[in-house]
Amino acid sequence: MNTLKLKKYLLLISALWYAGAAFAQQGNHTFKLGESDFLLDNKPFQIISGEIHYPRVPKEAWRDRMKMAKAMGLNTIGTYVFWNLHEPQKGKFDFSGNNDIASFVKIAKEEGLWVILRPSPYVCAEWEFGGYPYWLQNEKGLVVRSKQEEYLNEYRKYINAVGKQLAPLQINHAGNILMVQVENEYGSYAADKEYLDINRKMFIDAGFDGLLYTCDPESDIIGGHLKGLLPAINGQDNPEKVRSAINKYHDGKGPYFIAEWYPAWFDWWGAAHHTIPAEKYTGKLDSVLAAGISLNMYMFHGGSTRAFMNGANYKDISPYEPQISSYDYDAPLNEAGNATEKFRQFRAVIQKHLPKGTKLPAIPADKPAIAIKPFKLTSVSNVFDHLPKGMENDKPLTFEDLNQDYGYMLYRATIEGGKKGMLKINKLRDYALIFINGKRVGILDRRLNQDSIMLDLPNGRLQLDIFVENMGRINFGKYLLDNKKGITESVLFNGAELKKWTMFSLPFNHTEATDAKAPANIASEGPVIRKGTFNLAKTGDTYLDMRAWGKGVVWVNGHNLGKYWSIGPQQTIYLPKEWLKAGKNDITVLELLDNKQATLEAISTPILNSLKK
Prior knowledge:
Layout: H1 3-23, E1 31-33, E2 38-40, E3 43-45, E4 48-52, H2 62-72, E5 76-80, H3 83-86, H4 101-110, E6 114-118, H5 149-166, E7 177-181, H6 193-205, E8 211-217, H7 221-224, E9 230-234, H8 239-249, E10 257-261, H9 279-290, E11 294-301, E12 312-315, E13 318-322, H10 341-352, E14 372-376, E15 379-382, E16 391-393, E17 408-416, E18 420-425, E19 428-429, E20 431-436, E21 439-445, E22 452-456, E23 461-469, E24 486-487, E25 491-493, E26 496-497, E27 501-506, E28 528-536, E29 542-545, E30 551-556, E31 559-565, E32 572-575, E33 583-591, E34 599-603
Helix pairs in contact: 9-10
């Protein structure tokens, strides 16, 4: 193709790309694969998409985030669907509130945006267990991402439930979902084509009868693609390499889609906040758009991983790495949903590829942020003073054994004193506070490969308490199959196994579970629950400053905002305006390490890159 024809061709794609976004909420459309392009209503269409995960953004803010996507020049948004959100307990599905993904898709349509849907049972996404519900581990014989009937039966129920919500919203049913992804980076895990084909058939049976595709890193497409489906590529933005890789597995033709284009990265506890200057990616974005290649930016807006839904990485060559609550990701749209310099530079690149004279919507102004003066949390209760009924067993039981999903568990046993020796917890998952007669004598941290502590015990028959935190199930790699929480094997003292345990489940899955019922026994050094209120004359985004605190979780007005930990890099917790109110606001803090801390304040800017030893 000569230079003049190429320019005309790219102008046509740009015009149709921009027009396509405007058409997203109008009438019936078709979407299919051409020889080298996606075809929207039989005309070339370039997808410029950005990933936004509905549970990481308050539902009340979904529309505002989508307006920001339009303002940067996106015509599409992508999202995973999270199995463990929608079926938190076996057979109990939830598509309400912040889990109402059908509303998320419909709002996108109203805002003139197409959607790429990623409802694979496995999502990775720095999300707890990679999106799998914890209870799958209690199903006898079940192995995730396998052809075992036990797994496929549960998977089928899930995808059918998702299909009822979302299949009617596909473009071939007058909706705005352009494509649906089958599995997720499967080639990085295995290469079983029969398994992939079972996935494909289940998606179709669930009503996903439009365009299906797979996505994998370049080196793993060989294992993750399925003949007949479009093989998209992740992590590669060299146009020639993108075309070459996809041509190899798609009969020598396109379209060409970068399913995950990474202009940034995520963070984990104890490691520096990742930032990448926009200038390192503007040229790459420019070359991809100039080549007519479609892409999905991961992430356009990360938001926050609230409650206990953060995942963790673990590889043979690296330690356990639980991810932080902020999913800011150094994305073009920051954690609070405001435009960054990266947003502005990417917008300028996209604008350059629009038809001459076309203007993008104005960039919405940053939302107002407020500070909150220091206030006291006046009510306090020691967790150990208000334990639920315990479960007795000769050996320690895991979270899964007790049908507990997330949070914490207290393990209690008696131990003969008057001796010195090594206490060893075999396969601790993941963080433990060790107490003798209510006094904290040590901490064990899986991140640091710690499982043992030397104890010098006083005389007598002593109470041993081990308070264990689930810091997030692994979300990537072969260790998906080894993801139970708590004390998963045994506890030894001087080489002898300790028996006769009582387990107390402390999931803290509702703020009601944190209610203090009596004054705290501050003489104990166990975790405490502090409650209080603060008053606002006006609302705005704010950031709870946790630098003076130790480790724990915060709830405001019933919303679990996520975890904090003094080691950093995250030292603040984002509190969105949508969850605040003028007048009195309620706050609860579960603090594990410093039971004397009782004052809290909020600041108007986040602190995401401050490490402490």
